[in-house]
Every structure is written in C-alpha cells, then in structure tokens.
Amino acid sequence: MFKRLFGLLAIGLLGGCAANEPELYSRINEAYDFEVTHCDSFAIVTGVGRGDEGVKEAKISAKRQGEALLGTHIVWLHIDNIEDSDQTRVVAIVYKCLV
Length: 99
What we know:
By secondary structure, the protein is an alpha+beta fold. The protein contains 2 helices and 4 strands. Strand 3 and strand 4 form a beta hairpin. The longest helix has 18 residues, at 2-19.
C-alpha cells in the first residue's frame, strides 16, 4: 500500500516539474538597434508560435536560429498575429558584435 502511494506521489511530483520547464540561458542578447550600430548584421530570422504563449515561443525559435548562426545579438523588427489563426510570427535581425 505504501509503495503504491509513494509511486503515485513520485509520478505526480515529476509530472508537475515537467510542466513548468525553466527557461534556459540564451547565448544571444536581445538589443535595440542603437545598441548594435558598431556590429555587423548578417541574417534575418523568423519564428512562429501558437496559442497564449505564441510570442514567447516565436522569440525562442528565432533566438535559437540566431544562436545556430553564431550571432551575439538579436533585434526584433516585427511581431504580428497571423490572420484567421492562433499563430504569432516574429521577425528579427541577427548581429555579430566583436566587442
């Protein structure tokens, strides 16, 4: 009986932890355009997210693309909701700053 109760408790706790994933550290910094005037812009990335967390998901997707390109900074250009859909799209420029 105690084994079954302990097992159910452990599953419940582990399931709760999986639902609230912490946001991982990002290797690319969000910036404003005036902060990266001395840097080289070299890519435009986009991200798409869905639902209530659409903007957050879209930004994470775009930041991951920027990280894969070895960018150091990202400047958001546009955030919009796609018509007749629950999707949100972001567009950003990726920069590489040496300093």
